[in-house]
Amino acid sequence: xxxxxxxxRPLDYPPSEKTQVKRLHERARYDRESAHAILDAGLLCHxxxxxxxxxxxxxxxxxxxxxxxxxxxxxxxxMLRKVKEGVPVCLTVAMLDGLVLARSGFHSSVNYRSLMxxxxxxxxxxxxEKIRSLDSFIDRLTPGRxxxxxxxxxxxxxxxxxxxxxxxxxxxxxxxxPPADDEEDYALDVWAGVVPIRTVIEAPEDDPRLKAGVAxxxxxxxxxxxxxx
Amino acid sequence: xxxxxxxxRPLDYPPSEKTQVKRLHERARYDRESAHAILDAGLLCHxxxxxxxxxxxxxxxxxxxxxxxxxxxxxxxxMLRKVKEGVPVCLTVAMLDGLVLARSGFHSSVNYRSLMxxxxxxxxxxxxEKIRSLDSFIDRLTPGRxxxxxxxxxxxxxxxxxxxxxxxxxxxxxxxxPPADDEEDYALDVWAGVVPIRTVIEAPEDDPRLKAGVAxxxxxxxxxxxxxx
Lengths: 229, 229
What we know:
The structure is a homodimer. By secondary structure, chain A is of the alpha+beta class.
């Protein structure tokens, strides 16, 4: 496996014309371990597709299994109906980790993790496999919950489309750490540093119609989204 | 001004074929007040554009002035070089506000705010206007900081492209509140409710090379991103 000369990581997703990061290439990653870490931290992706030359960017939840990204939604959704035709897709995941306040506006930035995956989606058609993948989506965030909720009806399954796309043409960019100022600017009397941004999961709020005696399950305290650690 | 029959809000951005929300239309908004509230809460958008039939979705920071969305970046950026040609763009902002855990997988959802804006970007060319808009970006998050940092050099200004797009074809979707379960499912012994997700700004971290005696400015305590309130 060829290695990235910049960081020694494997080039699991060899850079293509579309995915080669041209500027600030020290922020680039093309390895599977980084891709899985970004995808497993996030929950929200943005799916880009084209209808009659017009780009659309639809936010939606996703999950990962192996080297596949899954997403789902209503079978009536414009995005899903288009994307399941096997058209070119760009699926992007991005998480903000901090504001990078440099001594000049020019060097100010943000810390972030981002992944762009190019490809074509495929429909998960087989009913048992659809149910299994949707259960794994539930259990990914709330382990054990898939077995607790009321199972899907066949009508619900018909109304739900599940798509997946294999990771193959992938570009990641990650920035972390303090500002990188021009050498002479370090002498300025300007505060500089990083303001960390974090996604927190707050205390669960019972449904107002929660049945008496039903306790909040333990997995609610373990939910993690967008976390760096 | 015509009103939205669903919620009585003005249809400031009249629904078009692209922006008419077809399912769950009770989540739809087309009014300026909602658009400005979503845009002013967020920081990260996803810009969709097409090159040779291939969609690209690039995450980037944005800011709002009046009914215009601004974004910026390196003049060498593939996204900015393409988008400044006046091609069709879809710019999407989405924020997760919570997990909605219903008594079935089918009715489980997320609480969120999202905005999709369609249009063509225009270049902010005039140097004074470019500087003014970049200053307003800095001051939006950290009021007063634009006057503290080292001003941009003419070379930095050349290396920076600023684009803007007018809000005109805009679709918003907002979901909030508890799950909406099938009536018979309320009797199940399954916990249901909302797990709130919040973006928090943590304590600033001084640059390791911060000049001795430079104190952290007060505006660092006032930064708000993705907040609902």
